[in-house]
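Reminder to self: tokens first, then the designed residues, so the page reads top to bottom the way the pipeline ran.
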């Protein structure tokens, strides 16, 4: 008698045991377990081997999954804006770190990102918003970075400056006169215009708090020249904010097309899309982590 016939008969016998002892009584349960043990014994070794093999493959897959996510904020903001995205990613099992770059110089910001990358326990997905996109374009050449995600962000090429790229498709912010400069050369957005230009899809009180907690960005940071564009050699993703008034959405689309980035557009989203649409942003980050884990 071949093994397939034996297997079918064993399954049939086990099913009959289940039917005869279907009443939820202690005696019925014991009879069913005894019957199962007797009928399945010849196949125990095979079942054990299959379970062991599946477990080993599962562990191998887990070992190759990218679980580290590093989030980088942009100009005139800080890491607290990532809270919604952070909570979703952590709930889904990712190890999330948030860089608090000082915005005192472009190199200081790149160094701050690399400092956080250095304490990760494996490969990382590097994510940035706005000006942070230029920062991760430079810092992303670090060998631990396996993917780059740009959220309504700048994406300059080697030899380019964010300030020059912005002139390709001028934004409402650039034309508004709302960018102010302190006597020592740091920039900020006029708090009275912050809501409409930076965070139009957020509640007024939340936008007001963001406006009053801006991290002033050193003006020269926008004119830093990229030495090596990481997206040239690593996969990239772009979230386009459909109603962005800080960076022109057409510039975001142009960046993404040039880099051949996987692109998702969030219709009606302001520049603060990472705050107002955390689920959509987290989905893109998780898709990136999944793609580089294959």
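Designed residues (294 positions):
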């Amino acid at each position: 008698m071949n093994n397939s016939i034996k297997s079918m008969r064993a399954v049939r016998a086990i099913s009959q045991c289940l039917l005869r002892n279907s009443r939820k009584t202690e005696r019925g349960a014991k009879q069913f377990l005894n019957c199962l043990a007797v009928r399945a014994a010849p196949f125990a070794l095979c079942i054990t081997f299959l379970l062991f093999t599946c477990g080993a493959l599962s562990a191998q897959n887990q070992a190759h999954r990218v679980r580290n996510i590093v989030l980088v904020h942009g100009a005139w903001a800080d890491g607290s804006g990532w809270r919604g995205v952070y909570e979703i990613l952590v709930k889904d099992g990712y190890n999330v770190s948030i860089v608090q770059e000082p915005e005192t110089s472009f190199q200081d910001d790149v160094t701050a990102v690399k400092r956080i990358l250095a304490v990760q326990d494996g490969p990382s997905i590097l994510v940035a918003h706005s000006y942070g996109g230029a920062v991760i374009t430079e810092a992303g050449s670090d060998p631990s970075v396996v993917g780059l995600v740009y959220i309504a962000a700048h994406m300059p090429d080697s030899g380019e400056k964010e300030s020059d790229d912005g002139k390709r498709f001028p934004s409402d912010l650039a034309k508004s006169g709302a960018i102010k400069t302190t006597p020592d050369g740091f920039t900020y957005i006029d708090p009275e215009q912050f809501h409409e230009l930076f965070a139009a899809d957020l509640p007024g009180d939340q936008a007001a708090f963001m406006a009053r907690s801006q991290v002033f960005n050193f003006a020269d940071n926008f004119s830093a020249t990229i030495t090596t564009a990481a997206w040239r050699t690593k996969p990239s993703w772009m979230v386009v904010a459909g109603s962005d008034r800080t960076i022109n959405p057409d510039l975001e689309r142009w960046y993404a097309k040039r880099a051949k980035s996987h692109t998702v557009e969030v219709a009606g989203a302001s520049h603060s899309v990472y705050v107002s649409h955390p689920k959509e942003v987290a989905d893109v980050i998780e898709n990136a982590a999944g793609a580089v884990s294959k």
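The chain has 13 helices and nine strands.
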